[in-house]
Amino acid sequence: MSLQVRGVLVVVIGVLLGIALSVSHAVLADKEEVEATVTSTLPWEDARLLAEVLERVKRDYVDDVDDRVLIEGAIRGMIASLDPYSSFLDPGQFEDIQVTTRGSYSGVGIEVSTRNGLLEIIAPMDDTPATAAGLLPGDVITTIDGEVVDEGNLADMIGRLRGEAGTSITLGIDRAGSDETTEYLITRARIMVSSVRSRLLEPDYAYVRIAVFSESTGKDLNRAVRRLRRTNGGALKGVVLDLRNNPGGVLDSAADVADAFLDDGLIVSGDGRVDDARFTMRASPGDVSDGAAMVVLVNAGSASASEIVAGALRDHGRATIVGNTTFGKGSVQTVMPLSDGRALKLTTSKYYTPSGESIHESGISPDIELDAATNNSAVREVGLEEAIAVLKGEYSTTLGKSAEDGVDDEDMR
User: Fold this and answer.
1) Do the beta carbons of residue 121 and residue 139 sit within 8 Å?
2) H or E stretch including 112?
3) pLDDT tens digit string along 243-266?
4) 201, 236, 224, 223: which is closest to 387 by C-alpha?
5) Got the DSSP string for 184-201?
6) 266/18 Cα distance (integer angstroms)
């Protein structure tokens, strides 16, 4: 093996060992342990093969490629091959993911996932260019600015959705039920991560909308419900919790929201390979709504943290789930800082609802089904009449209409 190949091999093993150490959080005491970890982490033959490929590219590829670009490309490919939710983050992407959970960022306002090599929209966020343009959960992005989405370079394609406010991007969209690709010209904007909105629908009945689970969502939710109770002049009889098109977010915030409406019991459990990935989260005494009846609105864009909340409230008999089957993301990702501002977003746990159910790739089925096409729209008023009827005990699941006034579901929408 040439000296150059050996040099590349040393770099590769160093990078991979660094990743292994970051994931396991292990502290190795001496040289023998380091060597053992290298051997157990990456067989020598595989390391040599990777180094040989890198050397071939360095020597024979039509253009000269920087060593760092090659190494980062190898890492991105390795992590992306694990599942749709794990990724290697460069410093800009790492900063973006931190800002998204804390405050604001510039982009079009969608949460995306990769499924079977396709770039699929989980949900457009409220009051963003994506919702204004009419993008929907389940839409597949096929082109970005006329360039076909490349299955082998999805991370770069996702990164291009971000950009300076005021700049434009054209997305080619394939939508279920349509045989043609539709292009959407969207102007990027500053996306404010406003997680909780609330209002009284009518006396005694409150509406709370959670658009995304950020670090402050639990506290914001509790403040919102207390404020609604004061505005109402007394206890609430019912609460509609709207999680439609909520793509998820911070796990702890999801647990806080479920805890706000539960007095006790398991909220969610997680199982993984390392100790930190195995966890249980339980409710503490106190229900911010003081036992008010609850409806949780969901749709195909309700994912991850949204499904944790819906699953916990459903399993404890605390709420009626109304809408459509949720997205089905039953895994937890941990963001692990690396050197030079980079990070790994790595799937570390599978989570389970209080009943022990994994909803991964199956989602949560509603107790009461709404018309999917209408319920996935950006119009928030959809489904509220049905929700109020359920809270008042006036909704007949057998007849599919309000038992009191006989109004058909189609008319109510």
Assistant:
1) yes
2) strand 110-115
3) 998 989 999 999 999 999 999 999
4) 201
5) EEEE-EEEE---EEEEEE
6) 36
The catalytic residue positions are 304, 315, 329
Task: For 266-320, give the DSSP string.
Answer: EEEEEE-SSGGG-EEEE--S--TTTT-EEEEEE-TT--THHHHHHHHHHHTT--E
pLDDT in tens, 13-44: 454 444 333 333 333 333 344 344 444 556 77
- Helix (H) or strand (E) holding 350, with range, is strand 343-352
Which amino acid, one-letter code, is at 322?
V
| Alpha-carbon span 74 to 93, nearest angstrom | 17
Cα distance between residue 71 and residue 80, in whole Å: 14
From residue 390, alpha-carbon distances to 61, 111, 368 in Å are 64, 30, 9
Nearest to 240 by CA among 295, 191, 165: 295
CA neighbor of 133 nearest in space, from 154, 159, 107: 107
Domains belonging to the chain, first-starting first, are 3-65 (no CATH), 104-192 (2.30.42.10), 196-332+349-412 (3.90.226.10)
For residue 240, the Cα-to-chain-centroid distance in whole angstroms is 22
Q: The whole model's pTM is what?
A: 0.73
CA terminus-to-terminus distance, the chain: 70
Spatial CA neighbour of 372 closest among 317, 302, 319: 302
225 in Cβ contact with 198 (< 8 Å) = yes
> In this structure, what are the phi and psi dihedrals at residue 92, rounded to the nearest 5 degrees?
-65, -45
Amino acid (1-letter code) at residue 59: R
CA–CA separation, 35 vs 264, rounded Å? Answer: 48
* Amino acid present at 219: K
Instruction: Extract the tokens encoding 322.
Output: 């109304």
Positive or negative torsion for Cα 255, 256, 261, 266: positive
Q: What is the pLDDT of residue 42?
A: 61
Q: Of the candidates 228, 225, 227, 198, which has an alpha carbon nearest to the alpha carbon of residue 211?
A: 198
Which stretches of 148-265 are DSSP H helices? 154-159, 217-232, 251-260
